[in-house]
Design a protein that fits this description.
With 330 residues, the chain is α/β, with parallel strands linked by helices. It has a single domain, classed as Alpha-Beta Barrel (TIM Barrel). Helix content is 39%, strand content 17%. The chain is globular, with a radius of gyration of 20 Å. 46% of the residues are buried. It binds ligand PBG. Ligand PBG binds next to helix 6.
């Protein structure tokens, strides 16, 4: 049947009809809010390139997450640490008293129901800013996998609910799974940054986490933005090695990847709406060029429509607050 018998505008005629046939709705349960934690007390450093985001000391992080849960009902966070001191291998992150394990313990004590996803990577912890141990001018895969597994066990012991390796080393999911199981954490899921691209969209994050590489770039381990078949191979490897959820990162320029991963594998897919995607919205809004609340909702909805059931986004708190203010279900 075609026009004039078919008129697709019939189902757009009123809000009640549009609400009835809407296919995709973003819900607070879909969202994970990232935070940056650093040592000290009463510290709240604004991150200039990410308006509304801060480097927080543990005491203020606990308050902020309490506020997040109370005002929005968002109960899932992703943690990144900025350590006091860095070293060559990222081993500083493997101590019981490293900044993220400390933060996890404090959060769990104050807010027992919070779900904490711990990012596992070395780039915040190495003097050179690369995601692993440097041998002959490049990140050495297998020794790095070792430190990642050790960091994961430390985070799980501190109480992390989900381990999320973001380094892109080969074999790290399998090694982390094995280390977690050997230490009694067989019930701790792995959310693998499986298709993580070497992206310019991470720029603001590297200011926030103080993790920019001091030489070269991450192209020998993160993926080439031109590739899509390779993303499926990365995802497949991670699934074989034991990933419970797979991630595509960045999100907006990679919705085709989200869709391919979702339709190829029967797995929960996570989209990481990264710092540069966030900051572009903020910059345009500050100039009065776009309707910020509208754009945020459109972005999150389209990521879910593309196939992601979980979205990591710096917009999580403001999105839910704005929906609640409008009286929308979220
Ligand atoms: C660590 C890591 C990065 C991000 C998350 N984990 C940065 C990078 O790979 O350089 C980026 C997140 C963002 O841009 O919001 N490897």
């Amino acid at each position: 049947m075609s026009y004039p018998v078919t008129r697709l505008r019939r189902l757009r005629k009123s809000a009640v009809i549009r609400n009835m046939v809407r296919e995709t709705e973003v819900n607070r349960d879909d969202l994970i809010m990232p935070y940056f934690v650093l040592p000290g007390e009463n510290i709240c450093n604004p991150i200039k390139s990410m308006p509304g985001n801060f480097q927080l000391s543990v005491d203020l992080l606990v308050k902020e997450v309490q506020d997040l849960v109370e005002t929005t009902g968002v109960d899932k966070i992703l943690l990144f640490g900025i350590p006091e001191e860095k070293d060559e291998t990222g081993h500083v992150a493997c101590h019981h008293d490293a900044i993220v394990p400390k933060a996890i313990r404090a959060l769990k004590e104050a807010i027992p129901n919070i779900l904490i996803v711990a990012d596992v990577c070395n780039c915040e912890y190495t003097t050179h800013g690369h995601c692993g141990t440097i041998v002959d001018g490049d990140v050495d895969n297998d020794s790095t996998v070792h430190t990642l597994a050790a960091q994961s066990v430390t985070l799980a012991k501190a109480g992390a609910d989900i381990i999320a390796p973001s380094d892109m080393m080969d074999g790290r999911v399998g090694a982390i799974r094995k280390a977690l199981d050997e230490n009694g954490f067989h019930a701790t899921p792995i959310m693998a940054y499986s298709a993580k691209y070497a992206s310019g969209f991470y720029g603001p994050f590297r200011d926030a986490a103080e993790s920019a590489p001091k030489f070269g770039n991450r192209s020998t381990y993160q993926m080439d933005p031109a590739n899509s078949d390779e993303a499926l191979r990365e995802v497949e490897q991670d699934i074989i090695e034991g990933a419970d959820m797979v991630m595509v990162k960045p999100a907006l320029s990679y919705m085709d990847i989200i869709h391919r991963v979702k339709t190829t594998f029967n797995m929960p897919v996570v989209a990481y709406n990264v710092s540069g995607e966030f900051s572009m919205v903020k910059a345009a809004a500050a100039n009065g060029w776009i309707d910020e609340e509208r754009l945020i909702k459109e972005i999150l909805t389209s990521l879910k429509r593309a196939g992601a059931e979980v979205i990591i986004t710096y917009h999580a708190k403001e999105f839910v607050l704005s929906e609640l203010k409008k009286g929308n279900r979220v």
